[in-house]
Amino acid sequence: MKVSKMLGERFKEAPKDCIIASHALMMRGGYMKYVGNGIYSLFTPTKRITTKIERIIREEMDRIDGQEVMFPVVMPATLWEESGRYTSIGSEMARFKDRSGNPMVLGMTHEEAAVHLARDTAKSYADFPFMIYQVQTKFRDEPRARGGLIRVREFTMKDAYSFHTSQEDLEAYYEKAHEAYERIFKRAGAKNVISVKSDSGMMGGSVSHEFMLLSEIGEDTLAICPECGYKANMEAADCLVKNEAGVAEELTKVHTPNSKTIEEVVNFLGTDAKKLCKAVVYQKNEDDSYIIVFIRGDLEVNETKLRNHLGYEIHPATAITEESGIVAGFIGAIGLDKKIKTVWDRSLVGIESLVCGANETDYHYTGMNVARDIGEVDYVDVAKIYEGAVCPVCGKPVIAINKGIEVGNIFQLGTKYTKSMDMTYLDANGEAKHPIMGCYGIGVGRLCASICQESHDKFGPIWPMSIAPWHVEVCNLRTDNELVNNTANELYESLKNLGVEVLYDDRDIRPGAMFADADLFGVPVRAVVSPKTCEKGVIEVSFRDKSFKGEFPIAEAAEKIKEIVKAELAKYEI
Amino acid sequence: MKVSKMLGERFKEAPKDCIIASHALMMRGGYMKYVGNGIYSLFTPTKRITTKIERIIREEMDRIDGQEVMFPVVMPATLWEESGRYTSIGSEMARFKDRSGNPMVLGMTHEEAAVHLARDTAKSYADFPFMIYQVQTKFRDEPRARGGLIRVREFTMKDAYSFHTSQEDLEAYYEKAHEAYERIFKRAGAKNVISVKSDSGMMGGSVSHEFMLLSEIGEDTLAICPECGYKANMEAADCLVKNEAGVAEELTKVHTPNSKTIEEVVNFLGTDAKKLCKAVVYQKNEDDSYIIVFIRGDLEVNETKLRNHLGYEIHPATAITEESGIVAGFIGAIGLDKKIKTVWDRSLVGIESLVCGANETDYHYTGMNVARDIGEVDYVDVAKIYEGAVCPVCGKPVIAINKGIEVGNIFQLGTKYTKSMDMTYLDANGEAKHPIMGCYGIGVGRLCASICQESHDKFGPIWPMSIAPWHVEVCNLRTDNELVNNTANELYESLKNLGVEVLYDDRDIRPGAMFADADLFGVPVRAVVSPKTCEKGVIEVSFRDKSFKGEFPIAEAAEKIKEIVKAELAKYEI
């Protein structure tokens, strides 16, 4: 491909709304164009990168016996009514009526379509297990598109669905899918991708993992144990604390004027936040009824964990009415209206004496002992994990908090969809059973942008050879010099004939401008032809990541470059 | 791929709504599943076929310097408002509002997106010409989806857009694109594809061609001259007639009781339909005002040509009111209300004496001479061409009428979109100009179904080797026989190792059922392993199209089959 013929332009200044590097560089480098909020057109370099990523994904899906299929983007709402998600999913799902007035949806995920495709065909246990996948456009009406291709509304996704006759079989396959994902990210040149236990959210199911590319600009927060390797999304991480029991005291009501916050109470009573029984108030979305969470004073509530525990949608209390009997700032379990739902975080377990509100303005209790003063309570884990928390696996207080971009996810779905959509098979005993499903997603464009985020310098992306839009860029520094021109043209043709993917900058522009553009193209190997190199009878070859610079005799250059490319490509093969 | 592991089932009876063979066979063969009106999920065999078709298309697009890009499926309505098509296109375009209330559309074609992508980047004449293309999902809310993948609402399309600085350059490129299309259809194994001049319809522009796969089940009607090769869509074909002048007569009003139709008048007056001046009444959609077309009695009006001539939408008159002054069955030009719009088809040119209505119930005129009795009129061509019509190119009365399925189209768009969307470049003189565009489309799924329609027998599709889902099917007729089983397994593995794409029917089913399924899979080469063949030490090899049947010694079979596949594939390379 000749740069002179290629659509797209490079520029110096990033558009104003680009707050992360990969977004800025991909806009500046002519990789994509903004069409609307979270919607982009992709120029040829991006299309070439994503095609290579898709090829890697397909190879790895086929390697774990995936069958590529194709589901529709537009689906009748009736299909989503079967699973119940037509109503349970909100405005992130785009809906319209067709010319006949039938409600339709744009697929944001394809569990329903997968079950629909499989349910009349796989009827005997002998037909299982199998996995079907597609690479297809999806639309999710994200409330906050951001970061270029990192979070968009329209995107290309590989989504896979596996069907099994036993949980063990699902788990074994899930493990294979996990390995395939590790291979995909490695082969695509993503260096810092880890898998973490995650919350399954709207997908349903229990066990799930997210593949996170570690990055400061990530939207997800991860808890990682550097000792034992435990890794989890904040939303899913178990929070363990080690409490000092302290000594049992008598329950005493004390006057705590104007001491509403944890800090105020701690200061007023000269105690430790770890001795406080903090109350956090939520409301159920459905009817605004109150939920009070009791948790150790120094900890925060993890709303996702709370939501999963309760099984319904909640929000932090917006207004506490007088009739509620809740005395904000002085809430406690003793004497609280029994009609109010309470949740006890397990961080309170084992503390002999706690400070808690007395449900009366300006009063707290000290010496509160849950078992003695309240009775039996069910402790659950709804606390947010924190830097230095106890690792739930190895028990060491060394949890580190990191940011990550979710580049893939895998879910054990169970029978959520096969039950609701009534997919059954006959087992070996002739009994009808619901198959057990797994699902497995990777966002192609997001992976591309995440790799750019991970692998760039201030001048442009540094694409890994395995997904680079081209292997080599030939820079012709003097198109008006016959020798330079012929040498560059010949190198371009020779490389192409050797099967090397070449971008050829054949424009009559200043070397500085050409190199600036080359940095933005991010092609891993650069071959420069100039009067100086021609005089020496060489081609100057360097790596975009600066790890190599050398000169090859003109006659051998194409072959040498091919060898370099081959060696680089081999690094990404597993 | 092993059939035992493949999702999808084959069955004997076609679903009731399948009225064409390809639809019935692709449903019966487990190629696709109905999701909703004009919406299908595709099983692996279809996905494999369409992937191969897409690869051929991409190679040919790249060969004419295409740059692959990606436009969004969902676009903001504002983009379509720029071109004016947001209002000019009706309910075939799906529309919805996003969560912020912004009107959005689903792309049914991407001229707007192409201009949007190119307009800020290609600013100098030196940046031209270029062509960008994509392979992407489209949604058109077709009023009548039919024939399986022949006419659907959601489909995968390759759409390409070229930009030029002169009409000559567009025409030269258009010619190259025409040749690329011919190569694509040939390489995909479509045997009877011709290109015909067509009507540009909603795309705008002037010159356009459709690529038609000749087939009885085609929805398009084509006029073809077997003498000189002239080919046109009925909608675009010039209708030429040779009239006998006859002799001049006096204008005479005659009583023609109850003679309203052409047939009745011909019988009553004992004349020839070719002497009649037939009147056909239309109404303008906008205000229901009348348009009367005068045309030779034996011809029909081509509504598309009439619409293009008038420049507005029309429909056949639904009700002729009394106030209109139009006397249905006896309409003529003499004495007609001057306010009524009239159109004169050129089929009336040169006839000295015509019979026409007298605008009075039960009366006609004979001896009507247009020039003498009406004066100067503008003759235009709005007649439908017919079997045996005069070829507009070679002049011989040998036009044949054929049916075809439109599998591709190419348009010279001119500046319709670059003007309305204000895309300009500076020419060599520094003047701002609008680029001239061409656009080029191929429906991937429709091509797949059309090839099936063209290439099948009553047992199933006969896929051309170049797009076949697999090259070879190995049939293991006795999985319970160790020798047969081992031989078949080894053949499967050897073929895979040789790079041959193999479908392996490893199921324990009756040979009859296995062969019936094999016919539905339509894989070009079949290799049968049975106790009988093993005894003889051979593999039985045959072609799905019955053009070859033979036996190869087991040890050589894989290599021999590979050679056969290679030779077959070579037939489709150009």
Radius of gyration of chain A, Cα only, in angstroms?
A: 30 Å
Shape of chain A: globular
CATH class of the largest domain in chain A: Alpha Beta
Q: Report the mean per-residue pLDDT of chain A as an integer.
A: 95
Low-pLDDT sequence parts of chain A: none
Per CATH, the superfamily of the largest domain in chain A is Bira Bifunctional Protein, Domain 2
What is the tally of helical segments of chain A? 15
- What is the makeup of the main sheet of chain A? 9 strands, mixed
Structural class of chain A: alpha+beta
Distance between the termini of chain A: 29 Å
Our estimate of the beta-strand percent of chain A is 25-35%
CATH topology name of the largest domain in chain A, in short, is BirA Bifunctional Protein, domain 2
Number of strands of chain A: 31
Largest interface: A-B, 67 and 67 residues
Compute the number of structural domains of chain A.
3
CATH architecture of the largest domain in chain A: 2-Layer Sandwich
Specify the helix fraction band of chain A: 25-40%
Oligomeric state of this protein: homodimer
